[in-house]
């Protein structure tokens, strides 16, 4: 559809048809004081396209973009190289313009893509079945908690201290309205397994526990074996929910499903989806087959039509808002279709071998960076295990250091003071993410600048 | 054993103080292929006209209401593995749950087989 502005003749014709003398007649029910008298103060009047373009470019130049600086930010959103072909393919009209397939039978290509996406997510997570994507990682995490409540008919969720604080905060907000009880804790800057509080979590699991939520690698980068935790949860009739914010890690470490997790959720942004100033992202959700009936969101399935030909359908969607209304399983299970497609295309281009190589590359770069950065006087590397992200303990507060580095054109990491503003004990923590996009020179630039900042 | 029917297309078959509840042949035919049945846990108290179970076909999910008040004594576990029993034997092996009746007098307002047939014909 083209955008064609209305002419005065168009307006007159429409008004005549509905029997109104003027446009103001349409608003007679709106009190005069609630109506706008003139232009909005502070909002500029219309300008030419060229002038707007120039203005926007000027504004954009004020940003320090991920591609223009040595970049070491992670904590749930990662900068990876996305092949140009991903963007090209998702922009095909059939994919780009399709909304959630509510009339699925006419969207066979979209359904097939979702089916393949689900297969990839299920294999990546080591689970039986995955859905056709969710809004993002944090909402997928909350959905997993409510799913565990439905499965176990219990209302207490234990959240590990290593879970991303924004995921915790989202769960807190939602639990205010659902009455779920959340048992949470703050991470600690201890060396070895930073942020990890496995002992507290293991001790807290009891007969009232619906689930334990644990992130791997955790918010401070530590990688853990979840097998013992899974066994303890199952002993007590609780589910283990594993959260993965960096899917590339699964090219190098065992999947949560293999370690015994019942539900695995996470963020898929790393593959195919850029940083995009924080969204849109894509939530991944997978579980064991026996819980599939309680899974939120929709699933694409493969079947045969009456003539025996292969076809794709949406299945198990009877718990969704458009069918069950107020009794829907979820209100935030939004399918991130286009981002899911980008994820799927990127992962397909990589293949299993490519993902492993990408993961190995990330890990090797991160190890080299950790070695270099921990040689700075006063800086301590806390992790004894990590994938592409680790935590440094600085001798000073990390937040102003990060700010000073940014002023020098280096995006040097995420300070824990920013993530946990109310926890002074964490103020010295700096989480550094190193992906394949960070060169050796970038690491050296960061190391020298960090050294100078700490000495200053 | 006497069987009664509701206008919501549930049947209830009563023997002594115990009743078996399911959905009618008419209801299963309207729903099409049944893919899942969510049943109440034994021990649950259900009240006449209240939601007691959910039956899902491929494209719809419908509530099943309790025909009378009572306590669920047993849920039909066979439906978990094979929900299509509701299609093949709605008033036999495809039963939903058994109830201990709280008030037998509530049965009086329900239809008998003949009355239910006439009711369906009128729809």
Topology:
The complex is a heterodimer of chains A (456) and B (123).
Chain A: H1 8-18, H2 49-60, H3 84-90, H4 93-96, H5 108-125, E1 129-130, H6 137-152, E2 156-159, H7 165-178, E3 181-183, H8 198-204, E4 209-215, H9 227-235, E5 239-244, E6 263-267, E7 283-287, E8 299-304, E9 310-315, H10 321-324, H11 337-374, E10 380-381, E11 389-393, H12 398-407, E12 414-415, H13 416-419, E13 429-433, H14 440-455
Parallel strand pairs in A: 2-3, 2-4, 4-5, 5-6
Antiparallel strand pairs in A: 1-7, 6-7, 8-9, 10-11, 11-13, 12-13
Helix pairs in contact in A: 3-11, 5-11, 6-7, 11-14
Chain B: E1 2-5, E2 10-15, E3 18-23, H1 25-31, E4 34-38, E5 45-46, E6 51-57, E7 61-65, E8 70-75, H2 78-81, H3 85-88, E9 97-101, H4 113-121
Antiparallel strand pairs in B: 1-2, 2-3, 3-9, 4-6, 5-8, 6-7, 8-9
Protein model, in words:
Chain A is α/β, with parallel strands linked by helices. Chain A is 37% helix and 13% strand. Chain A has 14 helices and 13 strands. Chain A has a seven-stranded mixed β-sheet with strand order 1-7-6-5-4-2-3, with helices on both faces. In chain A, helix 3 runs antiparallel to helix 11, helix 5 runs parallel beside helix 11 and helix 11 crosses helix 14. The radius of gyration of chain A is 25 Å and the shape is globular. The relative contact order of chain A is 0.15. With 123 residues, chain B is α+β, with helices and mostly antiparallel strands. Chain B is 20% helix and 37% strand. Chain B has four helices and nine strands, in the order βββαβββββααβα. In chain B, strands 1-2-3-9-8-5 form a six-stranded antiparallel β-sheet. In chain B, strands 4-6-7 form a three-stranded antiparallel β-sheet. In chain B, strand 2 and strand 3 form a beta hairpin. The longest helix of chain B is centred in the last third of the chain and has 9 residues. Chain B is globular. The N and C termini of chain B lie far apart (27 Å). In chain B, 37% of the residues are buried. The mean pLDDT of chain B is 92. Chains A and B meet through loops of A and loops of B.
């Amino acid at each position: 559809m083209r955008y064609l502005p209305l002419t005065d003749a168009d307006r007159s014709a429409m008004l005549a048809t509905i029997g109104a003398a003027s446009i103001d007649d349409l608003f007679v029910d709106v009190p005069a004081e609630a109506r706008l008298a003139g232009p909005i103060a502070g909002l500029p009047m219309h300008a030419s396209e060229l002038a707007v373009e120039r203005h926007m470019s000027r504004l954009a130049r004020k940003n320090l973009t991920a591609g223009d600086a040595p970049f070491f930010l992670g904590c749930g959103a990662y900068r990876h190289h996305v092949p140009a072909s991903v963007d090209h393919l998702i922009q095909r009209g059939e994919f780009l313009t399709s909304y959630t397939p509510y009339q699925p039978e006419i969207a066979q290509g979209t359904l097939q893509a979702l089916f393949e996406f689900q297969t990839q997510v299920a294999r990546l997570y080591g689970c039986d079945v995955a859905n056709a994507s969710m809004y993002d990682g944090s909402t997928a995490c909350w959905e997993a908690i409510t799913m565990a409540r439905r499965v176990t008919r219990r209302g207490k969720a234990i959240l590990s201290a290593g879970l991303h604080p924004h995921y915790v905060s989202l769960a807190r907000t939602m639990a205010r309205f659902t009455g779920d009880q959340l048992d949470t804790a703050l991470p600690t800057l201890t060396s070895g397994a930073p942020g990890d509080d496995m002992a507290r979590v293991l001790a807290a699991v009891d007969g009232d526990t619906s689930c334990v939520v644990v992130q791997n690698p955790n918010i401070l980068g530590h990688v853990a074996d979840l097998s013992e935790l899974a066994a303890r949860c199952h002993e007590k009739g609780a589910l283990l929910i594993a959260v993965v914010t960096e899917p590339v890690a699964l090219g190098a470490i065992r999947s949560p499903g293999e370690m015994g997790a019942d539900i695995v959720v996470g963020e898929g942004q790393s593959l195919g989806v850029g940083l995009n100033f924080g969204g849109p992202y894509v939530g991944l959700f997978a579980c064991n087959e026996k819980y599939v009936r309680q899974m939120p969101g929709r699933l694409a399935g493969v079947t045969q039509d009456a003539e025996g030909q292969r076809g794709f359908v949406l299945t198990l969607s009877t718990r969704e808002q458009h069918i069950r209304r107020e009794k829907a399983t979820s209100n935030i299970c939004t399918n991130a279709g286009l981002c899911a497609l980008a994820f799927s295309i990127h992962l397909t281009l990589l293949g299993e071998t490519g993902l492993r190589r990408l993961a190995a590359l990330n890990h090797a770069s991160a190890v080299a960076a950790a070695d270099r950065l921990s040689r700075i006087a006063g800086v301590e590397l806390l992790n004894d295990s990590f994938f592409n992200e680790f935590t440094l303990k600085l001798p000073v507060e990390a937040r102003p250091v990060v700010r000073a580095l940014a002023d020098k054109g280096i995006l040097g990491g995420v300070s824990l003071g920013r993530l946990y503003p109310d926890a002074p004990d964490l103020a010295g923590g700096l989480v550094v993410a190193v992906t394949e996009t960070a060169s050796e020179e970038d690491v050296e630039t960061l190391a020298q600048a960090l050294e100078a900042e700490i000495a200053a | 054993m006497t069987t009664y029917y509701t206008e919501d297309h549930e049947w209830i078959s009563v023997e002594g103080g115990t009743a078996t509840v399911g959905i009618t042949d008419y209801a299963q035919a309207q729903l099409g292929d049944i893919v899942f049945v969510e049943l109440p846990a034994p021990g649950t108290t259900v009240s006449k006209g209240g939601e007691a179970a959910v039956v899902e076909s491929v494209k719809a999910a419908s509530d099943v209401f309790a025909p009378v008040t009572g306590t669920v004594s047993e849920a039909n576990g066979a439906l978990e593995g094979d929900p299509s029993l509701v299609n093949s034997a709605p008033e036999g092996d495809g039963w939903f749950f058994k109830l201990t009746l709280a008030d037998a007098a509530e049965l009086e307002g329900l239809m008998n087989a003949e009355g239910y047939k006439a009711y369906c014909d009128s729809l």
